[in-house]
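re: that complex we talked abt at group meeting.

here r the seqs, copy pasted straight from the sheet so there may be weird spacing, ignore it
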Amino acid sequence: MPESSDMLIQVNGKEQKVLQGTTLLQIVQAMGVDPARVVVERNLEIVDPEKLSETRVADSDRIEVIHFVGGG
Amino acid sequence: MDDIFEIGGEKLSSRLFIGTGKYRSDDLIPKVAEASGSQVITVAMRRVDDGGKGIMGHIPAGMHLLPNTSGARTAEEAVRLARIARAAGCGNWIKIEVINDTLRLLPDGYGTAKATEMLVKEGFVVFPYINPDLYVARACVEAGACCVMPLASPIGSNRGLRTREMIAVLIDEMKVPVIVDAGIGKPSEACECMEMGASACLVNTGIASARDAVLMAEAFGKAVDAGRKAYLAGFGTGRSFAEGASASSPLTGFLR
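got the structure back, here u go
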C-alpha cells in the first residue's frame, strides 16, 4: 500500500481519515490536549503512555482518548 | 484528641470527601478544597472533546484522588474505567458506580458487587456506591470493598438524608466504614450522618451549587467535624413528651 493512502479509524466514536503511519501521539496532539493528561485505549487495550509516539494506528482501529473531568 | 480516619491505607484527619463536578468555574475547586479541609477529592473520566482541558490542573497537590466509574452501565464497563484511572497514574482507589437508571441514577447493587469482586482481585481499593441495602453492602464487603458508600438521596438532588433508617442499619451492621454519599444538600444533614456514626461524608452538589461554594465548603467541613465530635462524645438520654422537662438548674434554694 502506498505511503500516502488514507485509513479509516474511529477516534472517540467518530470516524476519521488518517494517513498511513500516523501515530497515537499525533492523534492526541491533534486534539489539542496534553498527552501527559490522557489515557489512550486502542481496541479496548490501554496503551503504555511511553509508547504513544511509536504506536502507529492500523485501518479500522477504534481509539479512545480519555481524560479526567469534574465529577462526584 | 487525635481522631484519625484510616481508609485504603491512608490516615486522614478530615472526614469530608468532596467532588469536582458542576462548579460554575473549575477555578473555584482549589479554594473549595482548602476551605473544606478535605483530603479526598473525586473525579470522573470521559472522552476528550476537542480542546477540553480536563480537571487535573485544578486538583490541589497532596489530595488523595478518588476517581469514579460514572458512566458505567455494567460491571465490565466499571472495570474498564477503573483500569483507565490507574493507567493515568491516579493510584489504586476507585469509587464504583454502576448505573442504568437514567432518571434517578440509582446504583445497580448486583453490578456494583460484581465489579467490586473483579477489581479487588486486580489490587484496587474499592469504594462502592450503593443503595443503603444490607445485602448489597454485605456482598460488596465480602468481595473485599474497603467501605460502603450508601446514598442519602438521589445524586445531585440536594434532598438530604432520606434514607436515614437504612443507613443506620448499615452503620450498626457493617464492620467497614460507612461513607454517606449523594444527595446531602445542607451541612446540618452531613452533621446528622456523622452524629449517627457514619465514618465520613462525600459532598459535591451541596457545595458546588451553593451561591458561595467556598463558604459552603467551610460550613460542610465544620459540620462534619461537629457531627463526628458529637458522636464520639456520646449523647445524653432524651425524655419523652409525657416526662416533660428536667431542670438544668437546681430546684432547691430559691429566693422567696
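couple things i noticed - Strands of chain B lie at 5-7, 10-12, 16-18, 40-47, 64-67, 93-96, 125-130, 149-150, 179-181, 200-203. The interface with chain A takes residues 19-23, 26, 29, 42-48, 50-57, 67-68, 70, 80, 83-84, 87-88, 90, 155-156, 182, 202, 204-205 of chain B (CB under 8 Å).
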